[in-house]
Design goal:
Helix content: 10-25%
Order of helices and strands: EEHEEHEEEEHHEEHH
Radius of gyration: 18 Å
Oligomer: single chain
Largest sheet: 10 strands, mixed
Strand content: 25-35%
Structural class: alpha+beta
């Protein structure tokens, strides 16, 4: 059964060496327990701990609705080592998103963000993301007030790591992610959920690249490719629909997997 419909606690392991491990996080799973979502029962940290039999330490986060590569440590020392790479911005992250409308071919967003839970007088923090258009699609179906429905696939390369950064920067560009209940449009989210038979945030952490934690001088590339039906059945369904994406090679590149960038 694909992870995005996971019924058991088994999480796909993408890489494991020493005291470091990376898994594919299914959409709809929280990384750890939180009182902000008291009704949720699926938590990556607890499930992976039970699965492999050792304590698990997160070193970065993915939103509940986001799928893809999640890197964790199996000891406090390994957690400190991996966290240091994130703090020094030595980890290169690549995401794919389906967004409303047609964004420009490239966009460099340098737009400071105030933490969601910060006081109104709190200063905004620097936040930078690069975006690249992968493919466009137009359907002759009226949704909301427009005669056509336009969406695009974009690649997001966050330079900083603020909470909800990609979602908020795409909203800043006026191209919110489909399925984003906070920053998007309800009519579009509902239409796509009905069309594809799945209600989710269409944001995927496709790859991570970082200095190899065990081999000095080498880089480690970890990916959750959209080409894997076992991992990404939702995206396979989206990319296999019979509509025409404007870039002829985009669907093939996405289905065959994205090469990590650094």
């Amino acid at each position: 059964m694909p992870p995005d419909g996971l019924a058991s606690a088994t999480l796909p392991v993408l890489w494991h060496e020493g005291e470091c491990i990376a898994i594919h996080k299914p959409a709809g799973w929280l990384v750890h327990r939180t009182g902000l979502d008291a009704g949720e029962t699926r938590f990556v940290v607890q499930a992976l701990r039970d699965q492999i039999g050792v304590p698990v330490h997160p070193v970065h986060r993915l939103d509940k609705g986001t799928s893809g590569v999640l890197l964790m440590a199996l000891s406090p020392a390994a957690a400190r080592q991996l966290s240091a790479h994130f703090e020094r911005r030595e980890v290169h992250k690549r995401y794919v998103a389906m967004v409303r409308g047609w964004p420009p071919d490239q966009a460099h967003v340098d737009h400071a963000l105030r933490p969601d839970d910060a006081a109104p007088q709190a200063p905004a923090q620097d936040a930078v993301t690069d975006f690249r258009l992968l493919a466009r699609c137009s359907l002759d179906v009226p949704v909301d007030r427009y005669p056509q429905t336009r969406v695009a696939l974009v690649e997001a390369l966050p330079i900083t790591g603020r909470r909800h950064q990609i979602r908020r920067h795409l909203k800043h560009l006026a191209h919110p992610i489909i399925g984003d209940a906070t920053h998007g449009k309800g009519a579009h989210n509902r239409w796509w959920a009905e069309r594809l038979g799945v209600q989710r945030l269409w944001l995927h952490a496709a790859s991570l690249s970082l200095p190899h934690p065990q081999r000095e001088g080498e880089w480690l590339d970890i990916a959750s490719p959209l080409s894997s039906a076992a991992l990404n059945a939702d995206w396979q369904r989206l990319l296999s629909e019979p509509w025409q994406w404007a870039q002829a090679d985009a669907r093939e590149r996405l289905l065959t997997g994205l090469v990590p960038a650094r």
